[in-house]
Amino acid sequence: MRINWLLILAIIPVSLSAAPKLDINQFIGDTLIIPLPVDSIPVSSALRLQITDDRPLSDRILGIQQTKKWKYIPIDQYLLLNQSLDKTMTKYLQRDSIDFNGNLYLKNLTLWYDSKPAFHKGRKLNCYTILEDSTGRVVSDWMWEEILKPKKKQKDEEIIAALMDRWLRKQVNAISECSFHPQIYPYLYRRQLLNWWDLIMIADGLIINAHLTLDFPPDQQKSWIRGSPGIYYRHSKNHESIAIGGMDQLWYARINEHFVWRLDTALRFGFNNFESSKYEHLDFWNIFMLNYGTSLTVEYRPVYLKGLFGGIGLYAGINLLPTVIKLVEPGILVTAGVVLP
Q: How does pLDDT run along the chain (341 residues), one tens digit per residue?
């Protein structure tokens, strides 16, 4: 039987025109409403502290995250408040009867998931605000950093709402208690580039541990936690080792305006290369490198630093592989790096 292709081609446009039209927004966009405890409170016009939202994404939008439509199609999802952020902040202020006369500027708000710190990963909020008095004089700024680990089966809107509520309550309390920072952050608030090199001198050689990372400035915090992938290279008289991508866990504590403590721990996996004249035969597992290293360092890193920093500390390593070297390996550590806001 012959197929009448002309008839089929004539029917197809009619069928397509009769089919229901699909909204392209169903495929490329979605929204997630973030509820907050003050949503039902009416906005008061008597508040003397004005709120100015200077973020690139203003009004109700808190940010954009990626999700999946029908479990497979990746789309952008807009995080929305029930009201604009400046009105929401006003409700928190009037609920606590804040009587400050001036203007609070919301300069930056970033909601994201930080997976780098293995023991401190979770949903994160980074925010920058500036407070002016009634004469226009800058009284204080705040670099906020909040993190919450999601509970099992906890919805995205619940964890984001908890982060927002925690930050907004802290911001209101800081204004109420006049907890101000006289030294203002002098750079554009964004993720800063941090690159540093640890040189570790051991008994039979040296170790180089290099890092490059982007993260928000922590200068107003007394302590903070970071995670950073690195490149580890060990050179000794009879063998060398390399590991790429090992995730260092970093605990920082500020000593004063000029110095910080840094505690660094890392479990690394890599490969070894041996001097053939020294080792005629090795068991195959010695090809692999597996060790745990920790160091404690004092660094010269002033508050709001831009440029070079350095420090000195102690190192201790436990070498599980290769088995032909010492199990415990102490060393002296010297570090140098650069901060680029």
A: 444 544 334 433 444 344 444 343 444 568 999 999 999 999 877 889 999 999 998 799 999 998 888 888 889 999 999 999 999 999 999 999 999 999 999 999 999 999 999 989 999 999 999 999 999 999 999 999 999 999 988 999 999 999 999 999 999 999 999 999 989 999 999 999 999 999 999 999 999 999 999 999 999 999 999 999 999 999 999 999 999 988 899 999 999 999 999 999 999 999 999 988 888 788 999 999 999 999 999 999 999 999 999 999 999 999 999 999 999 999 999 999 999 99
Looking at the fold, whether 169 and 289 belong to one and the same domain comes out as: no
Does residue 222 sit in the same domain as residue 308?
Answer: yes
With respect to residue 5, please indicate whether it lies within any of the assigned structural domains. no
Sheet with strand 138-148: strands edge to edge: 49-53, 102-114, 122-133, 138-148
Into how many domains does the chain fold?
2
At 134, the amino acid letter reads S
Tokens of 311: 């420090």
**pTM (two decimals):** 0.87
- Closest by CA to 209, choosing from 201, 200, 218, is 200
Domain that holds residue 309: 192-340
What CATH number did the domain enclosing 103 receive?
3.40.50
